[in-house]
## 1
Amino acid sequence: MTDNCLLITETYLPLAYLNAWEYCPRRFYLEYVLGEFQTNEHIILGNHLHRNINEENVIQEGDTRIHQQQWVWSDRLLVSGIIDAVEERKGNLIPVEYKKGKMAKHLNDHFQLCAAALCLEERMGKSIAYGEIFYHANRRRQQVNFTPQLRQMTEDAILAARAASTGGMPPPIEQSKKCQACSLQSICLPVEVKQLMKEP
Ligand code: SF4
């Protein structure tokens, strides 16, 4: 890693934490601010599925050139991170993320992909219309259009996450389904904390 990359990783918000922010602000705080980490079956499976694309590489598939594990950053938004792949098709650049779940409306994944596209646009000086997310669970690709609304929501999320990182720890969220899938549940203790918050 170059000195420039080292400086960026120390001061820029990592793209993956933007995903955590949209999933749950408390999870973001626990991971990014307090450095908590705990694995569970979802994380192990996700790492396993990334095993073939976790190194920088360039491959050609038909008329598509695939750049795997591309490091990108934005000096304007102060975010940085790695895109799983950037595909070059007919002169267009298409950022691609690989996720273990099923295709659905995962706004956290859309924010991460859109932020990656904003970084790529800044680095390459060209506009990117859409990206794609490959969901392993049902082996489907979802096209995510980088609409003005999604771009604005992503930039708002970056600002909110950055501001939250200097504040206090957010309370647990109300969505128990997310908590059940969250690897930090035993550290966060959402049920217990919510019960304590109710007590006078
Ligand atoms: S257990 Fe729930 S409230 Fe706690 S960090 Fe995870 S998702 Fe957020």
## 2
Amino acid sequence: MSLVSLKELLQEARSRRYAVPMFDVSNATMIRAAIEAAELENSPVILAAIEPDLVGNMIDYWAGAARMGAISAGIPVAIMLDHAATAELCIRCAEAGFTGVMIDASAESFEQNIAITRQVADLMHRRGVSVEAELGHVGDGQSGSGEGALTGQAGTHSVFTEPADVVTFVERSRCDALAVSIGTAHGVYTTAPRLDIARLQQIEEVSPVPLVLHGGSGTPEDQIRAAIAHGIAKINICSEIMYAWHHTLLEELRQTPNLSYWDATACLAPYQAMLKVMRSKIRLFGSNRPETE
Ligand SMILES: [Zn+2]
């Protein structure tokens, strides 16, 4: 269909109670898998890069592949930068044709988070680019546990979003979407997370903008469904895609006596493994064929 803004995709998802999948896709093969999965399921999709995917002139290669995929796709596609640390990188991405950025100042103080987000929002809005911010802080599950994230204790460094802060934050920062911390964590869970749905409900009741769940990989399906039912309009999936890709590629290479063979051939099975993960997430999030629901 077309390249669309992040804001446009999420407003539609919020009003119709499904979540748009955001897939972190590091290379052209992953970009292609995300587009194909979304087309097969007739779902909107968000393609995301993080800073290491874009070093040097990789930003041009990445944006070229993502834009080409979006423009020729039969479904709406947004292209975004995930977890930007600086306004400079956001500007470079806007100039390369991204339609959304997430500025992550969630580790800063409340006032600093507002100031940094507002600066980026002003810079991006005049370029027609949407801005996601994070209030509270979604920690790292790799070294801690989902349980630790739930309590917001040390080890995961998660800080839950305070519902009372939401309206002030959104109005002053002018963000278009808000990532909330309600019990998920980034990376791989060592124990399953338990989301604070009551908190999410309080946030959704007051939030002027659609809500985003980071750390979607490994979150139990019933909790994902509950989160969507209570206002989550975008869910980020990274770790499960990377695992499907790398694990399958490793198995493929282990079974190959001569490693001097075509990379495109080696990547066939990993591609299918990613496609399977992405299609199952789309169905879980309810973003497939939303116009018929
Ligand atoms: Zn994240």
## 3
Amino acid sequence: MQAMRFARPASADRRPLVLEEGEPPVPGGPEVLVEVRACGVCRTDLHVVEGDLPPLRPSVVPGHEIVGRVVRTGEEVRRLSVGDWVGIPWLHRTCGRCEYCLTGRENLCVAKVFTGYSVDGGYAQYAVGDEAYVFPLPPPSDPFRIAPYLCAGVIGYRALKLALPRPGGRIGFFGFGGSAHLALQLAARLGYETVAYSRNPDHLALAAELGAAESVLTSKPRIAAPTPNLDSAVVFAPVGEVVVDALRELKKGGTLSIAAIHLTPLPSIDYDGLLFGERKIVSVEANTRADAREFLELAFRLRLETRVSVRPLREANEALADLKHGRVTGAAVLDCAAT
Ligand SMILES: [Zn+2]
Ligand SMILES: [Zn+2]
């Protein structure tokens, strides 16, 4: 099979992923082997490839928004069969024994395993997943549009929940990439008033199309300091300054969630002006399987639209570079078809 693997973290502009030929992995015990049809390109992949997240093994195949069909099952697999469509997400496996696993917070597990980081992922023609952690999917008419649901969608959903929006409240989305374009749609469909903030006019045009009540171009200097008018805010941009920008818009009692696995240093925050008034900041770490099941149910029922740009597997380096430089509107997805 073909896979895009890297050994040493480097800037995506230096094309660190190398096309390799090899045998498909053999699923053992509770694992299934999946023939990958589509794999989304998530910002976390960029953090893995560029070394913002420290390497966990000598080399790895990134990718954790995997949609494909089961082609082989391990001897302990009971629930899934050859031919089933499934999604393999970022949360590859948890320990099931730590204090977090035992209290319904498996996303915080101290020994969790990640797809495309601790184990090889979906920038490949085949990938393995653990039956207990993969999600059965209806046969998708367009697998490319479903792939971003697996991480961008689910993380956006968890970030939205943690931002504690009040019914019908006004929610700001800062940074409008793959995750935000699904979260904003979901929030708009659930009756919240949504505001998109971005430096990129194309991203704001998409936000308006997807139901944003208001769009704010952040590259222009604001004439006056904003009057706080958000009940909740979700920051998707992995940039510390954006958290401060978002706090300036947040009303008293509001909650800001940060949906980034890596953030550039947070500037000092003026406690009296920006945090006092019972404003709260919370980070988002991965998601539970329950989050994913809830989100997938909503996403299929509400037919959340995914705007994708699809590239063949061998162009994974270009897809990552495009993501890095803000050249993707919506989500980038790889076509990993084995034939
Ligand atoms: Zn655990
Ligand atoms: Zn992801």
